[in-house]
Amino acid sequence: MPDMRVVLAHDLGYCSGIRRAIDAAETALRSGGPIAATDTLLHNAGEMNRLRSMGLRSVELLSDEELGAATVLLPAHGSTLPERLGRISGARAVLDLTCPIVNRARDVAGRFADAGVSVVVVGDKEHRETRYLMEAAGRQLLRVVASEQDLDMLETSVSRVGVVYQTTQSREFRQQVLEWFRSRGIEVVEEMTLCPEVLRRQDAAGALARRCTVMLVLGDSSSANTRRLVAVAGSICHKTYLLQDVAELGDLGLDCGDIVGVVSGTSCPPMVIDQVVEGLRRVCADVSVELEA
Ligand code: SF4
User: How much is the average pLDDT of 11-16?
Assistant: First the structure.
């Protein structure tokens, strides 16, 4: 029986922004006192459950008295003004864990708006990071663009736009957006706000999908960057699976002759990668594991 080959992408597990948020949350939880988060601190249900088991509370479930004694953690993907000015303003302390790369994108949107440039935010409409960028654009916000369909429906009379990207958008969609404006004679000012770590993962997903017979994307379906990895790999390798739970491995019909590429979203706990490799060893006795060349 042939060996199953498993090829791991270089960038797996947490990105730097999520690692930073988790480290800060763990430090706060160890320091004692009620620690709470707004909604999801990060997009991974398993990791959120682990932090809850360490004592992380939900702001919504705290009494006013408890909130007055609590430290509230703001999520890595940004917070909105109503959140910051709302109930949590009654907290003892607020710890803003927004990733510096997300804040840089927000600064770009704010600079465009201050300069009087109409701002187009390219991002998933309900995502909190997109709302964070929209807030920075303020009254200069022209439109949020999430898809090619949004572009097709876009009507604008402005001759110049500032384009800001949610950090987890793809390079390919950025090119489509730029081309759309340029083909209509609309001047575009932009700064690259796509996250380098996300781009590396998208590149790896594409490269591995070309040489593997099966692609496993590890992460949570609530994570925008994880869904994008599924889209990138799935456009090349038709046997691409989003794996949220290692227990699902047995249902995928994997074969010992498969070459299995493994990539992960940026909120995927590192231990999940080991669990997946162990799970693959249960599917096939002979498994060789290599790192992406
Ligand atoms: S994906 Fe990039 S921008 Fe988003 S939290 Fe991670 S490092 Fe920051």
Answer: 95
Domains of the chain: 4-13+196-291 (3.40.1010.20), 16-99 (3.40.50.11270), 101-190 (3.40.1010.20)
Separation of alpha carbons 203 and 242, rounded Å: 17
- Asked if 224 and 124 touch (Cβ cutoff 8 Å), the reply is yes
Task: Please name the amino acid found at residue 133.
Answer: L
Q: How far is the CA of 38 from the centre of ligand 1 (A)?
A: 18
Stated pTM of the model: 0.89
pLDDT tens digits for 28-86? Answer: 999 888 999 987 787 778 888 899 999 999 998 999 999 999 999 999 999 888 888 88
The amino acid occupying position 56 is L
Digit-coded pLDDT (tens) for 237-281: 999 999 998 989 988 999 999 999 999 999 899 999 999 999 999
Specify whether 129 is catalytic: yes
pLDDT value, residue 1? 56
Q: Is the CB of 15 under 6 A from ligand 1?
A: yes
Q: Whose CA is nearest to atom 8 of ligand 1?
A: 17
Angstrom distance (rounded) from CA 254 to CA 285: 13
Chain centre to alpha carbon of residue 290: 26
